[in-house]
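Preliminary data (for renewal application), inosinic acid complex.
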Amino acid sequence: MTLPYEKYLQEILIDSDTLQARIAELGAEISADYAERDRLMLICILKGGVMFLTDLMRHITIPHEIDFLAVSSYGRGGRTATGNVRIDMDLKETVTGKNLLIVEDIIDSGYTLRFVMDMLEARHPASIRLCTLLDKASRRVVKIEPDYTGFVIEDKFVFGYGLDLDEKYRNLPFIGVVRPEALLSE
Ligand code: IMP
Ligand code: MG
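Predicted structure:
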């Protein structure tokens, strides 16, 4: 039987076991780094960061809050970010005086994270760091240096594990590369 996602999948780039092993390492590293600080708050960037957040937080052994921020970039081209970023849903909690760790699925141009970090900075947290599962480092347009990176990947459009292909397939437990023909055919 062919599963619906299979017609879009060129190859599995990072399988589930590899993802989970790396996420456990990141959780341990974050737990050690924040052991002496209190008021840790994980900020998940919706929607793509949601799978990563829920797995990562299981490996963070120190007490922390979570909150969610939904942003989208708008303008030309559905799959290429522009400098125009908009908040679709703001945080519920205040961040003043807290140690913020942003949890993001992927950094591409960097526009989204630059906007988010500048916005949060203006609310006077104690600190801000950035944890991204994936980094397409070669695509960077604006300067953003993640503090924690799961995997640096090549410039290919990927989906699964929180990342969407036209809003679907975020549930897949692995990161897959989209067939180029699937992107062109729309
Ligand atoms: P940036 O603002 O260019 O860094 O774009 C970041 C956002 O673009 C991410 O949060 C994703 O939503 C989206 N994005 C970038 N590359 C991919 C990809 O390969 N697959 C799915 N979404 C992506
Ligand atoms: Mg997206």
